[in-house]
Specification:
Blueprint (H helix, E strand, L loop, with lengths): L20 E5 L3 H13 L7 E3 L9 H4 L17 E5 L3 H11 L8 E4 L9 H18 L2
Parallel strand pairs: 1-2, 3-4
Antiparallel strand pairs: 1-3
Organism: Desulfonema magnum
Pfam family, one: DUF3783
Protein name: DUF3783
Length: about 140
């Protein structure tokens, strides 16, 4: 698997790669409600939101992001806390990131879908994101 690359997020209103959706992983049912409220607050309630379950870890991201909105809702799961965004604009991404800080929820792993990651399983992406976070934290010591 190839290492991911970080790219500074701009302010474009052009949709990024993939179907318009957000995949939320590792959040409790009450935290899921907070994420839904966050999207409502920033006028993104129309973006389909999928909640990954423990049985989704070996499914490709491209497939997970096309599941019906609210799939997996109210299900506890033991996978890593992450939010994977697809088909939204950079401006919408900026809104999500800045507003998330005010929710009081623990920091998730963040990612956007790419043509490369679209074919990864959820478990492969989460493993890579954990490695990248550890490397960044080590570098920032």
């Amino acid at each position: 698997m190839r290492k991911g690359t970080f790219k500074k997020v701009g302010d474009s209103t052009e949709a990024m790669y993939g179907p318009r959706a957000i995949l939320v992983c590792g959040f409790t049912p009450s935290e899921q409600k907070t994420v839904i409220e966050l999207l409502d607050t920033i006028h993104l309630a129309d973006v389909p939101i999928i909640f990954a379950t423990d049985t989704d870890t070996e499914i490709r991201l491209g497939k997970l992001l096309t599941l019906p909105s609210r799939s997996g809702r109210d299900t506890d799961c033991d996978i890593a806390r992450a939010i994977i965004m697809s088909g939204i604009t950079e401006r919408e991404l900026q809104k999500i990131l800045s507003t998330y800080k005010d929710t009081g929820l623990p920091r998730p792993l963040w990612a956007t879908l790419t043509p490369f990651s679209e074919n990864w399983t959820l478990s492969s992406l989460l493993k890579e994101l954990k490695k990248e976070r550890a490397a960044m934290e080590e570098r920032n010591k």
